[in-house]
Backbone:
């Protein structure tokens, strides 16, 4: 919200009053920036959490999502051994389709210890005798970014109103 500060003459008292108004406005802007950052991070973390929970995955879905807010930057973390498999997908039947897989060095056949199992048409066995053909990419973090991008203008208008 734009702010106009009017000085009624250049007296010491009026200049001090204007400086106080600028400082007050600066605190207001900082508070609103903090609120915007927290609200966007909350939206992103919620979307990512839901998408990770809904994911089709044969293994143990151990993903947890958290926000680290330093006071100037908020970072959304997805943590767990299954994050990359769930986010980007796995296997030749399901492991394609994440729009950013190549940018991050992910995709079918990129897991270092798969020894060519990813493209076995009969699937593969892992863990305690679990069979899989892989899983489709959940795109949880990707979707979180998309939703935050779609909602940033609306949220900013609400916050700075």
Residues:
């Amino acid at each position: 919200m734009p702010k106009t500060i009017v000085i009624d003459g250049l007296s010491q008292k009026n200049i001090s009053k204007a400086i106080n108004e600028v400082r007050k406005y600066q605190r207001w802007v900082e508070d609103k920036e903090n609120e915007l950052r927290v609200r966007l991070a909350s939206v992103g973390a919620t979307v990512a959490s839901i998408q990770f929970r809904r994911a089709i995955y044969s293994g143990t879905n151990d993903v947890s999502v958290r926000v680290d807010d330093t006071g100037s930057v908020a970072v959304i973390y997805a943590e767990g051994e299954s994050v990359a498999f769930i986010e980007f997908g796995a296997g030749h039947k399901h492991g394609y389709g994440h729009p950013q897989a190549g940018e991050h060095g992910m995709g079918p056949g990129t897991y270092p210890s798969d020894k060519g199992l990813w493209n076995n048409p009969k699937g593969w066995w892992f863990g305690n005798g679990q069979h899989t053909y892989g899983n489709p990419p959940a795109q949880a973090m990707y979707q979180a970014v998309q939703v935050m991008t779609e909602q940033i203008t609306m949220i900013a208008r609400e916050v700075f109103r």
